[in-house]
Structures are given as structure tokens and as C-alpha cells.
Amino acid sequence: MQVTEVSSEGLKKKYKIVVDAARIQSQMEVELRAAGEQVKIPGFRPGFIPMKILHQRYGKSVQGDVLKQVINQATNDFVTEKNFRPTLTPSVNIEAYEDGGDLAFTVDFEVFPDMPEIDFSKIKLERKTFEIADADLEKTLATIAERNPTLVSAGKDAIAVDGNVLTIDFKGMLDGVAFKGGTATNFSLELGSGQFIQGFEQQLIGAKEGDDCKVVVTFPADYPSGDLAGKEAVFEVKVHAVLKKEPAIINDEFVKEKGFTDAAAFRDTVKGQMSKEYEQIVRNHLKKELFDILETKYDVDLPQGMVDMEFRSIWERLLEAKKQGDESLEGKSDDELKVEYTEIAKRRVKLGLLLADVGTRNKIQISREEMTRAIMQQASMYPGQENKVMDFYRKNPERVEDLRGPILEEKAVDFILDKVAFNDKKVSLEELTEEDEDGNDNQTAKPAKSSKKPKEDVKSDADEKTGDSAQKASAKKKANK
Fold it and tell me: Which pLDDT does position 331 carry in this prediction?
């Protein structure tokens, strides 16, 4: 094998490799002998077919695979010998080959850059500290009470409004004839919920207990049932009760239904969950501040291929978001967006390289248990299809590698945060949640060996039970602004 450097500019490398005919012929014979064990040719026993005949009959069909194998092996041998670390799979271009002759091809690739040595003890971060006061806990408990309302009678003469729940009987008819699936008794319908066809709930606003109402609606032209699509229907509705929602009373009876021994234990769990989630917000602040410092203070040559791959990944998601009407993308041309998101791609690649280097230098390992947990977290994102997701990863072990990047990122961040210095600043919970607006996807690092970052948020048991979180409180505040 002959190797000649064609060009070397920064991280970009290009080499010409010539593999002699003998090596190719040797690999051809290996493949043809394997084929000869399986095929049947009259007059010859399998395994005893002359090489000349095998070459005549099957040479062309195996040649493509042989050349691919030879190119891959020669490239791997060359990269290993030179101690190169390509960032992506080298690009191969065959320059010359004739049957029975030498093979000449070029390989283009980029190598990982030299990484700076960072003394993390010289980095200083501002760390938010907080206290959960009794008033903060009471606000959260009040929110939980509102999200778990009880239904009580609004009164015999109460007029139904949006948000009330009506107990009704109804019968739907087309041209005076009841249709299948259009009848129910003692049905609970929340006005304004959009449970029923458009116009149905609106016509019950103003109804009272004991009223008999007539509701007229037209089914959409694309309604799934062809017998009803585009047709006008009349519903006879009997209102048995008008109910209103009242916040739950968080007492022993309420919390026992949620698996707690008493109200005190429930309050302790809620407070612990709040603390846990506000701590995560604090960590998000530290992580962003750390990433900003790493990005601005340390120089790294970026492999253009990795930047391009990351940009394509971002751009595909952006185009999908535009199709779905993402208002945040309005008012900007594609050219403007490409400039903006190219910078985001560069940031991600740079941070990914830096964090991967931290992992390598400090021998940060990912355990089998951590990988299993990551797969289970992925499966939890698809309720009812968990087994299919688990089976997918079992059948495609190479895709499991996609999950390593996010785990490595978090472990590398933990490693760094254990080394840096902190300047503590006490803030209120309100200030903490108001500042939690920069943790969006363009602020995060991307793993150096993965262009995908799966979502990793999984609700804890306490979150499932309380139905509340610091993040929800923050989101609600933003929505109300």
C-alpha cells in the first residue's frame, strides 16, 4: 500500500492511497471461496469448484463488496498508522481501477483539533441560592388545590357559564331519526372544554338545572363518520345539574387518595420536590454561565464538517417548526435565520468538543446502569409503546451510542462544577424563575460524536403525585405576562 499526502490545511487532510493488485486479488479469492461453499455447479462438488470458474461466474458480483472492504481496511490501516482521529467518516473517491490492476483512491477528512488545557479552579461562577418560605409552599399547595378541584352544585337557579360541568342526557337526530352513537345519559360535560362538536357547548351556556334544550350543529365535512359528515343534526338535551369547580381542601382525606399518610407528609414531599426542582434551575444557570465562559475564553479550531452536520440537524427542525406555525420565527428571512443558527451550530460543536475532551482527559466513564436508565427514559416518552422502544434499541445497538453524548455532557459538567469557585447570591424564588428563560435548546452543548440529543426530562414520583413543579410555575408566569 502506497500513501501520498495530497494536501494538509488546518484540520483538513487529503491523501492518495494505492492498493496493489495482489491484495485485491487475495481478498477476491477469499470471497469467491466463501461463495463456492454455497453454490451448486453441475460436475463439481460445493467447495471444490476451481477458482477460475468461480471468477468467471461470480467475479463481477463480488467485486463491489471486495473493493469496499479493501478501501475500508486500507483507510483504517492508514489512519491507525498515522495516529489520525477523523471527526467523521472519511470521504472516498476512486481515481483509478481496472479489473486485475491496482486500486487508487483518495480520502478526505478532518481531524479533531488540539484542545486547550483548562484550569477549572480559576473559573468563578455566580451561584444562586434560595429559601423556600412558608408562603412559597402555601402558593404551591394552593395551585395543587386548584388543579384538583371538587365539583359542587352551582345552585338550582344558577346559569351555566364556561368552566361549569353539566350533567346531561342527550339524543342526537338526523331528519328526526336518532343516529348511532348520538345518545347518552348522565354525561358530564365541561363547557369550554371542546369535548363536543363546535357549537354544541356554546349553546348550553345560560342553561339551568332542569332545562330542556335543543342544540343544532353541523358536522364538519371531514368528520370521520361518513354518515354524519357535513350534515346538520339536532340534539335534545336534558340538564340534570349545573356544577362548579372549587379548589380541593388539602387535608388527610385528600392526600391519602394520592398515597400519602397524612397532610404533613404531603407538605414535606411537596416542599422537597420544590427544592429539588429549584436546585435544577440553579444548576441550569450555572451550566449556561459555564458554557458562556468556555465558549468565549477558550479557542478551538472547529471541524467544518461537524459544524455543517450540526447546522443541518438544527435547520431540519427549524423548517418543521415553521411548518407548524412557530411565531418566534416570523419576521426573519431564511438568510438571516441561517446566519443566526450557524452561530448556534458552532457553539454546540465547540462546547461538545470541550466537554468530550474533559471526559477523555479525566477518564469519565458511563456505566451500563446509566445507559439502561437512559434507554428507559427514552421509552417513557412513548406511553404504551415502551416495549417497542426497548426492542428498537436491542435490535439497533449502534443507536444506543446516540444516548451517550447527553450523559457524558452532564457528567463532564458535574466534574467541572466540582472544581470551579462560586460567588453565592441569594435570590427569591420569583427572581430565580424569572431568570430561567435562557435554558432553551440553542444554549446547550452538543456531544462531539452525536448530532441528536434526546429529551431527558422524566417526572419524579413526587411530581406525579403533586402535579406541580418549579418549572410549571415559571412557565405559568411567562404565559401570564
Answer: 82
